[in-house]
């Protein structure tokens, strides 16, 4: 009798999805030959799932985005599978492929060795600003928000670094919060309280979206009292004892701000992994079709932003997750039954123009499936509450994965015929 542990590192969108998918669809299809049983173990630094999509609004206003809408306990969401699911609050510190085990430092300071038959790396990414990443507990992040909001109340100059969606969203939230909503026909606030500047390293904001959408975003920001500086990189930012930050720019100029928000990108959470498992961006280097981490030995997979295969985003995970879990299933069936693995399922990136960016509480820009969206639709989809009402609970409790995303394996006979022809 053997117990096979599917170990998932990370409890954000990708990790939560992988755990529910494994429990609802993968494990029920695995062989029980010779009494084989299967379990899922999740390791995550926080006991709560964090709806990080809403970070830009939550950082600025607890009235508009209270913490009760941001954090959801992980363990109760798996009550339906309590005999097969184990949650460990802690962080992975090392992986040993030879023994198929992970060293975990728990929240209490204990070192644990957790063995795996299959390993799913879903540790995600961190942001340079602590406002958009949950690195430890929900309480710690709430304190970070409260501290930021107190400093924001009296700020006169705010600089946001980064022209991606998080930078644009937080700049809009800050500008509206401090300067108010403009009049119906106004192109800028009548009496702005604060000067907000967004600095973009590129010639336009929102690089995934077309130029006219970026220009529309700039107009919406301008109406809230936020200017955009293009083609300028932030070289360094130094905070003085007074609390003000001096920001050095690539053109040789410096800017002083009461508050600086660094939204210049993300950093993969991979410091605990062997260097040979990583690519030149420190993301987990995987087979871009099967999502296997081939350098890590058998039955190791990656899902989510930490993987080399993806350009990032929660929507992309809906395409990637069934691929990784199907290939995990066929690999485990082959291991237990001693047969050759079944055909691989392949991931195909959706590279269509697809991104939705609220700008304040009433406007926004975006595209979906290559089609430009009107501002009112961006508001309806995301701007109202950053999709919490639609997706938060189904994501956490697994309702989003009630049905397995089916696929049709390639027909070996047909492939053979085509190769002969």
TrEMBL record:
Q: One GO CC annotation, please?
A: cytoplasm
| The keyword Oxidoreductase is annotated on this UniProt entry | yes
Keyword vocabulary terms for this entry: FAD, Flavoprotein, Oxidoreductase
Q: What ranges does the record give for the region Disordered, renumbered to this chain?
A: 400-421
All residue ranges annotated as the FAD/NAD(P)-binding domain in the record: 5-307
Q: Is this entry keyworded Acetylation?
A: no
A GO molecular-function annotation:
electron-transferring-flavoprotein dehydrogenase activity
Q: Which Pfam families match?
A: Pyr_redox_2
Family (UniProt): Belongs to the FAD-dependent oxidoreductase family.
In its UniProt entry, what is this protein called? FAD/NAD(P)-binding domain-containing protein
Look up and give the organism this protein is from.
Lophiostoma macrostomum CBS 122681
Specify the taxonomic lineage. Eukaryota, Fungi, Dikarya, Ascomycota, Pezizomycotina
